[in-house]
């Protein structure tokens, strides 16, 4: 659940993290959740979590939230970013987070978070996240095994029967073909993206 009802005092309210290896389907899972629950939120906001673009992408939420942060904030140079949290970017992030902690439901997705610390100044990424009792929910996808202060749900790879089903679909195969698919499944190690690619090739 994203409502914080089971998170406990040590975890940020309304924030969850989905952790898994590349190709496990983290982004697809979040897309499916967003599609099914979009009607529960005023807006679904997407943030690119790659280390060098995370802060810039987060600042661009101001455009979607209608928060005035000043034109110069989003056009800072590399040198100016050295004082990011101490200067104009810090003020802008505070304004964005203030909007996200209002009694308005937003869904914020931070996709493919690469590090739990800012690449430039080393500050914890959780300092970017909104705090308080607002109705905003945050979902983070990452390959990191854990994230400080955030409840993490780890996605495992598919077991053998489901792996085979993903490759085969409803098609019928001879025993010798099934042996080859079993060998492929073992080599792919149950990673859904690889299995789906095999299934796509077989369907053609």
Radius of gyration, CA atoms, in whole angstroms: 20 Å
Largest sheet: 5 strands, parallel
Could you tell me the strand content as a percent range?
Answer: 5-15%
Q: From the structure provided, what is the oligomeric state, counting identical versus distinct chains?
A: single chain
Average pLDDT: 81
The proportion of residues forming helix, as a percent range, comes to: 25-40%
Secondary-structure element pattern, one letter each: EHEHHHEEEHHH
Helix count from the secondary structure assignment = 7
Ends distance: 39 Å
* E-strand count: 5
Strand order of the largest sheet: 2-3-4-1-5
Provide the structure class: alpha/beta
Q: Uncertain segments of ≥5 residues (pLDDT<50)?
A: 3-9
Spatial shape? elongated
Can you walk through the features of this model?
The chain is 35% helix and 14% strand. The protein is built from seven helices and five strands. It has helices at residues 26-37, 54-59, 61-65, 88-100, 160-168, 175-188, 192-203, and strands spanning 15-19, 43-48, 106-113, 137-142, 151-154.
